[in-house]
Amino acid sequence: MSDPIRFDLPQSAIPTQWYNAQADLPRPLPPVLHPGTRQPVGPDDLAPLLPMALILQEVSQDRWIEIPEEVREIYKLWRPTPLLRARRLEKALDTPARIYYKYEGVSPSGSHKLNTATAQAYYNKQEGINGLTTETGAGQWGTALAQACSFFDMECIVYMVRISYEQKPYRRAIMQSFGASVTPSPSDTTNAGRSILEGDPDSAGSLGIAISEAVEVAATSGGACKYSLGSVLNHVLMHQTVIGQEALQQMELAGDYPDVVVGPTGGGSNFAGIALPFLHQNLTAGKETKLLGVEPAACPSLTRGKYAYDFGDTVGMTPLVKIYTLGHGFVPPPLHAGGLRYHGMASIICELWDQKLLSMYAIPQMETFSAAIAFAKAEGIIAAPEAAHGIAGAIREALAAKEAGDERVILFNLCGHGHFDMSAYDAYLGGELSNYEYPQEAIDQAMQALPQVG
Ligand SMILES: *Cc1c(COP(=O)(O)O)cnc(C)c1O
């Protein structure tokens, strides 16, 4: 027992507040603009889509926001999540680094997404909303929202990208088990869907199209249901900070403090969840932890994108947000980490990157799968392909520590398991995958199509 590997907290240690990093940013976030008028949006513009409590959280400058007791009660089903020391991985890598990971895959939905889905369903229910619409690609978000809606006895309407709907029937069945209605997108149930199908009856769909359908259903429901997003927005990132707050307590139990905190970045929510509480320590307690995001080399929004106003969706219906973007017309390359195929990134992460308060790696697909296999063999967990990017980042750090001969302390967020992603592992093991570098010409071309903002 002299070498503990697991650092568990009692349920009483579940955080009572979310950390709102907006309070500590060196300068305020750039305003969000109305897609038509190009003027800053106000609460009334967002009211058809989101409940007022979440609109207020979106713009709040309060450093700490109370987690409602009912939400903490539900968090008890999986929180606090475990933090483990990856001693067997350290040995396999022959590194002097000490590697820790926070495991969010123990949530009933299999990823961190239930942390925000629960909170979002709660606030909608509080305001008398009895249904939520959303989109899902790989299915992680749709699953989490379907579960959260069932906790609060709400209707859940999911538009699932058609190609995923066909390729991942079990994901669909999970959502349906929780009572969600799942429609392949594009569909003939919305104007947005019908207009796409008119031009291309066999459309495989995309996240952008599914967003348009889900938004349209909420906006035209006469207030019966609202829309819910699983990443990117400020309040979503804030809900995820329970991860890093628990990790701070657990690292103390372990008697260590991380030199590096690592997480994969799609829309930025799980990385924010683990990293922002450590950013708070950097900014207020004199700590110097390196906060390291990992994005796919095939979708390098931060490392190769431009900081500019752009739409959040493909069709150009959402408000304009200043983000590091590859252009809203970005065509996601064939990549198995479905949750990381997004043209932009959360504003907070973009602003921190612009202020040089974050580090980023862009890692190619083959390295992420080989890291995931090494991790699985050592620690026994099959990671989601998205989460594998965090593992690959942690392994790069551990090998750099070995090279430098230093005892770096590394903490990464293992944000989800990959039990429904085995076709991706199958393709990797069968030698069918390769690396994909997003071509510079495609980026240059997409930049031409950025909206003009005075
Ligand atoms: C959705 C998802 C992601 C990407 O979203 P973020 O907001 O960047 O966290 C990454 N990993 C897993 C397991 C996911 O489900």
Shape: globular
Q: Mean pLDDT across all residues, rounded? A: 94
Unreliable runs = none
Arrangement of strands in the largest sheet:
3-4-14-9-10-13
The bound ligands are: pyridoxal-5'-phosphate
User: In terms of quaternary structure, what is this?
Assistant: single chain
- What structural class do you assign from the helix and strand content? alpha/beta
Helix coverage percent: 40-55%
**The CATH topology of the domain at 6-12 and 79-108 and 241-447, please?**
Rossmann fold
Q: Determine the number of helices (DSSP H or I, runs of at least 4 residues).
A: 19
Rg, alpha carbons: 21 Å
The largest β sheet comes out as:
6 strands, mixed
Cα-to-Cα separation, first versus last residue = 63 Å
CATH architecture of the domain at 6-12 and 79-108 and 241-447: 3-Layer(aba) Sandwich
Q: Strand fraction band? A: 15-25%
**CATH class assignment of the domain at 6-12 and 79-108 and 241-447:** Alpha Beta
The number of distinct β-strands equals 14
Write a structural description:
It is a single chain. With 454 residues, the chain is α/β, with parallel strands linked by helices. It has a domain at 6-12 and 79-108 and 241-447: Rossmann fold (3-Layer(aba) Sandwich), CATH 3.40.50.1100. It is 41% helix and 16% strand. It has 19 helices and 14 strands. The chain has helices spanning 43-46, 52-59, 69-75, 87-93, 114-126, 140-151, 162-167, 169-177, 191-199, 207-219, 234-239, 242-254, 269-284, 301-304, 347-354, 365-379, 387-404, 422-429, 440-448; strands at 17-19, 64-66, 83-85, 98-103, 131-136, 155-161, 181-185, 225-227, 260-264, 290-296, 306-311, 320-325, 359-363, 409-414. The strands form four sheets. It has a six-stranded mixed beta sheet with strand order 3-4-14-9-10-13, with helices on both faces. A four-stranded parallel beta sheet has the order 7-6-5-8, with helices on both faces. It has a two-stranded antiparallel sheet with strand order 1-2. Strand 9 (260-264), helix 13 and strand 10 (290-296) form a beta-alpha-beta unit. Helix 12 packs across helix 13. The termini are far apart. 54% of the residues are buried. The mean pLDDT is 94.
